[in-house]
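TL;DR need structure tokens for one chain.
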Amino acid sequence: MPIKIPRELPAYSELSAESVFVMTTDRAEHQDIRPLRVAIVNLMPTTLTTEVQLLRLLGNSPLQVDIIFLRMGTHESRNAPPGHLERFYLSAQEIMDQGLYFDGLIITGAPVETLPFEEVDYWDELAAIIDYSAKNVWSTLHICWGAQAGLYRRYGIEKKPLDKKLFGIFPHQVNERTNPLFRGFDDEFLAPQSRHTTSDREAMAACPALSIESETRETGVFISTARKGREIYVSGHLEYDPLTLDREYRRDLERGLPITIPKNYYPGDDPSRAPIVRWRAHAHLFFSNWLNYVYQETPYDLEAM
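>> reply
TL;DR here they are.
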């Protein structure tokens, strides 16, 4: 939440320059308050686990957030309990048909990253949601494959295969410290990565609409934005809980797939030892900063965006 201080206070200009949320008395007296409306397109194979992971982070805020889960009507999920999606999710087409507006939208990753986008059975529906979000959503947060999908749909940026799966906990640097998303971040922070592909950095850097906000040589671009934060692309998984990478590692071992021990995850690279969580604080901070940004910037009347 913002702090309310007089504009004449010397600290006001310095904090504003740092993108700290400060509010003048006049604005506070005239501010309308309502719950935020956030939709989640949950494409992850771990349907219920992903729900908990995202809601845990979205719930760590003093703001009231109304959540609506969306499903792809053109895709039959085999990863949710029978009847779960029908009971708790709305179809994306239904949302578009009603012309609903949202403060925020989250599009998750999906286990389809090695497929060409057009070969994903729900691609046309997802592409329609991405297009729809340009006018009906204030800020869309794309995660992992969801980020690759958004960059491809909006800017034609292709994804490229990696030599081997990028898997583990990696340090990332912040390029743009005044970006509200990184308020309170350390100069270097850790985040989980789990992917076989990456978006073309050269193409991203050459795109005038995109700003590369965080990256590292080892993992490439971590976070990029467009339209002053109305589009956010995150290549990794800040939302992962302590044992997500462990479950993925053991799953791939059981399937006989080529997989290495997740980097910087188990103490001493020993899978028999419990992993050490070193990304939780920044995950909570990132999602809190996103909600705060959306709260401050979205028009009270969503249809006026």
